[in-house]
Amino acid sequence: MSQKLIDAIIEMREEDALKITQELLDGGADPMDVLEACRQAMDIIGKRFQTGESFIPELIMAGEMMTAITDILKPHMTEDAEEKKLGKVVIGTVQGDIHDIAKNIVAFMLDLSGFEVTDLGVDVPPAKFVEAAKESGAKIVGLSGFLTLAFEPMKDTVAALQAAGLDDVRVMIGGGQVNEQIREYTGADAYGDDAMEAVAIAQQWAKE
Amino acid sequence: MPEFKTDDHKIKRKVIACATVIEEMIPFLPEDVPYEVLDFGLHMNPSELKSLLQNKIDRASEEADVLLLGYGLCSMAVIGLKASTATLVIPRTDDCIAIFLGSSQEYKKQAQKEPGTYYLTKGWIEVGDTPFEEHKRLIERYGKEQAEYVTKMVLKNYKRLAFINTGDYELERYQDYSKRLAREFDLYYEEIEGNPNLVKKMINGPWDEEFVVLLPGQTLTYQAFVNSSPEAS
Fold first, then answer.
1. Which of A12, A57, A185 comes nearest B223 by C-beta?
2. Final residue before a domain boundary, out of A60, A81, A102
3. Which helix (H) or strand (E) holds A6?
4. Which of A90, A121, A148, A192 is most buried, most CB within 10 Å of its CB?
């Protein structure tokens, strides 16, 4: 049954996906298992995006489906599940960049995976990341940027966090053409190629 | 900074440029400087662009001493490029928008003024690579409702549509097109004057800090691209 849900999501059949979700719940399925199916579907879509089989529109539609599915699931989730928070993450698109499609997916996946996410939106100045990290006590900060123009502000944000004495905060970056050279340039602790990697990095850090 | 004098006729130059950039270069290109043009659509696929560029560079190195690349960083496509026997000269800009505007500084100024700017040039309009043309394709594929949702999400944070006027006899047509799109997608329209300074300087020198000058055998790193005193690997 959950394979059917995965298929519906990756084939962009939103109505079917919502119907199957409802049927799964009616049949007594654990909402966490349904979420797991969503996670697997997003993983596949992310991989297809990387290999050029899917494009931005599919990412957007998938994001829309995820939101709709979690809306259905939420009333069925026990408080216990809601409170299973692994840690706090502050995330945002850095100053000068306004692209947020992938960032939103990362934020969503982190939330699904049990993190408490503070999403600062787009065009976020370094000082705002510092302020949010201090206020929330988050030990993980995620910086997103699609344009190469974003690399400099990423570097500035890492520097601002350090200057504010937040030495125990770790920074992960992602988006567009971010790679190891850019991680090194910006001084970030890690980079991820897709939302699943961002989740894996955050999970790893939360464990340490 | 290596000593090159472009008026030295012993130095053979060759241009390898993107289809949108070459249009701005041709009016200033001396007759004895040959050029090759690569498809504009490649900017969507940086790894393919990289390997095609490397291929062109390898072949052009046999016939020229200095290769002028009509590209910017272009989604990191130029990082990793290398010419074994020629010198590479590349504008130190993020992408072609800076080339059209005349400097990286001007681009950053525009980006600061309004980060949510969608830039259009005649080249981009001609190739039809805009979210507006994409919108038409989406309607065909997913229907009107889904297409509208997707386009709305894509353009959500965009506020300004800026047409860069680089001068063209069909100017009015491009202006009309840009204005119509701005209205249709609820963006405010602005026209920005293009500036050929960077293009002229790329062709004639001096290749100062506005350019990455990569000596034969060096491989371009991101660090060298952004740092005006390059240390290549």
1. A185
2. A81
3. helix A2-10
4. A90
Whole-structure pTM value: 0.88
Residue window 109-168, chain A: list those with CB within 8 Å of chain B: 122-123, 147-149, 151-152
Residues A50 and A115 both lie in one domain:
no
**Partners of residue A148 in chain B, C-beta under 8 Å:** 73, 75-76, 94-95
Contact B94 A101 (CB under 8 A): no
The CA distance from A177 to the nearest CA of chain B, in Å, is 6
Q: Inter-chain contact B115–A98, Cβ cutoff 8 Å? A: yes
Tokens of A192: 């991820």
| Residue A106 shares a structural domain with residue A41 | no
In chain A, the N- to C-terminal Cα span, in Å, equals 36
Which of 3-42 (B) contact A at CB < 8 A?
none
The single-letter DSSP state of residue B93 is: S
**Domain span at A167:** 87-207
Q: What confidence tens digit (pLDDT) does each residue in B169-202 have? A: 788 999 999 999 999 899 999 999 999 999 999 9
Q: Is residue A97 domain-shared with residue A197, that is, in the same domain?
A: yes
Strand, coil or helix: what is B68? strand
If asked whether residues A122 and A170 sit together in one domain, one would say: yes
Q: Check: CB of residue B194 under 8 Å from CB of residue B102.
A: yes
pLDDT given at position A121: 96
B6-28 confidence digits (pLDDT tens): 555 578 999 999 998 998 999 99
Query: Would you say how long chain B is, in residues?
Result: 233
Query: CA–CA separation, B129 vs A47, rounded Å?
Result: 24
Residues 70-99 of chain A with CB under 8 A from chain B are 95-99
Mean pLDDT of A112-137: 96
Q: What is the ipTM of this complex?
A: 0.86
Q: Under an 8 A CB cutoff, do B142 and A12 touch?
A: yes
Mean pLDDT, residues A17-40 taken together = 91
Minimum Cα–Cα distance from A59: chain B residue: B150
> Cβ(A81)–Cβ(A25) under 8 Å?
no
Q: Which of A62, A81, A100 is the last residue of a domain?
A: A81
Distance, CA of B123 to CA of B146 (rounded, Å): 28
Task: Report the CATH number at residue A41.
Answer: 1.10.1240.10
- My answer on whether A167 and A77 are in the same domain is no
